[in-house]
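Sanity check record (used in CI):
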Amino acid sequence: MYFYSFILVALSTPIHAAAGDGDWNAAYTKAKTALAKLTNANKVTLVTGVGWEKGPCVGNTAAIPSIGWPAFCLQDGPLGIRYAQKVTAFPAGITTGSTWDTELMYARGNALGAEAKALGVHNQLGPVAGPLGKIPVVRRRNWEGFSNDPYLSGVAIANTVEGMQAAGVQACAKHYLGNEQELNRGTMSANIVDRVNHELYLWPFAEAVKANVASVMCSYNRFNSSYACENQALLTGLLKNELDFQGYVVSDVVMLRISDECTDWAAQKTTTGSANAGMDMAMPGDNFGDNNFIWGSNLLNAVTAGTVPQSRLDDMATRILASWYYIGQDTNYPDVTGWSSWNGGVGGPNVSSNHNTVARAVARDGIVLLKNTNNALPLKKPVSLAVIGQDAIVNPAGANACTDRGCDTGTLAMGWGSGTADFPYLVAPYDALKVKAATDGTTLTLSNTDSTSTGASVASAAATAIVFINSDAGKEYITVEGSKGDRINLDPWHSGNALVTAVAAVNKNTIVVIHSVGPLILESIIALPNVIAIVWAGLPGQESGNALVDILYGSVSPSGKLPYTIAKTQADYGTAIASGDDSYSEGLFIDYRHFDQSSIAPRYEFGFGLSYTSFSYANLVISSLSTTPGNSALLPGGKANLYDNIATVSVSIKNNGTVSGAEVAQLYIGFPSSVPNTPPETTPRV
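Expected output for beta-glucosidase:
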């Protein structure tokens, strides 16, 4: 049977606001008052970026003093402030998703927002709802998002948006929509039928809108043949009309050209097409500082000529102003002073506060224990410990040596691309293990390469060996070890399987730690009898080693759960990178839905994760609340009755072990056998 998933996340009530919360009406009243003071030239200034590297941020608009509008700053990114110093490099979205913890999702978002505001950033370009992650081999930027499951992704993005905006910065839900692979993303069309779009890809964006997100970023790709930023059905029909989105749509900025590999530069293509479709802000304005503005004077001329209605220009400006007022950025908001994206962020204030504690908590609680034979973990003061693999150490050239983290040298704590941040520091696994070993009196040895012979030699003399392997991915403007954004396959990089095999051949207590952007095929190492534990550490950010030691030594029992499925073979996933347009022929059946529908046994199922304790469930009670639709008023997120509570489910959970632990209760709901589980498609709305 095909199952929809509805998940009770970490036994806590979602923090994000109910549909309609917040005072958009007051914000729009202020926006319309300000609009009346603007000329059309002012309005065009408001909606058009000043150009690449023409301001301190990756996206900037000029100030309009007559209404108090500042030099507006938009800055990456989803796990920390890009191009800035003295900020926190948080765990990636995918690791946040694997916590399944709404409170941590909110706390991370709130800390991200606080740092952005302190730097004078008005719009922090995140969080990520697309790509959702239908193609596991890709994982290109899937690691910036939270899960392959639309419900879990929606819960995470809503809590993140609420946290960011409560701190005073505008959130930006991106990339809207169908941006599922890096190959040809500037030209390909994501051809998605209406039901699949609503149940999978649109869902997390709807949750962001319901959480009153201030902005949405339209993506590079085509959607059902039309470019996303020029698709009226997508921007106006679905987002603004059906979901009642109150904020503004901004174009994806610019694909930074580091080589001639990037030929498609920006998501916006034409003046009238983007304006009339429903795009509201053009960023960065020109192409790489060439002063060729698609909007600017061209938009002003189009309004004068009537090819773009006056009402559309007014709507663009009103939406941008309303979001500014809604977040409360019109009073006492800091300016961008002392730092610039273009000087490496040097000179800016230290805004990290105590956010390292949030970063460590997310990294720790996002760790998933996949295997633990005979309770091999937690470690109990081993006499000697060998640490194997370059993934255990900081890149010898420095944690930030590679532009936008565009290399896989040293421990992997985030992927590469525009969704990265500079590390203020990076605690590698070896660094934290060295401190712990000194405290315990453990003899610690290190092989800091991926050499199988060196690794085996060091491991052979130790009581326990920990092997570190990884798998990386990112944006296509950087090619890393033959991977142009998308991964080539689902094997660990640097012959990680061979390294584990060599170590396990000489050490009967081999533990494997994996840092990865997404799922890997682990069959060859799982089968090794001397591999007694496997720890999935994701992309943990700056507190990587500290968080890992917390779990390895039992200071905290692991509670992370997989936000995707780990298969036995790559072919089991049933999806692949498209060389041209993508028909999305798999329909609704991605990740665990596909495995369930096709009766394929995974290696580790979606939601899997072991603990150092055990839990029992009892007293499951299901209570119906309503059988008829309630209020059908249109509110942010769609019609209010889409979110009616029709039942409550409660269960008693008991910790049966001797150590403290946390459990994630997961509830899966499927169609009754009497109901067809694949109802016919209705007439497409998009």
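The chain has two domains: 1-23+74-282+565-686, 367-564. If this sentence no longer matches the regenerated tokens, the check is flagged for review.
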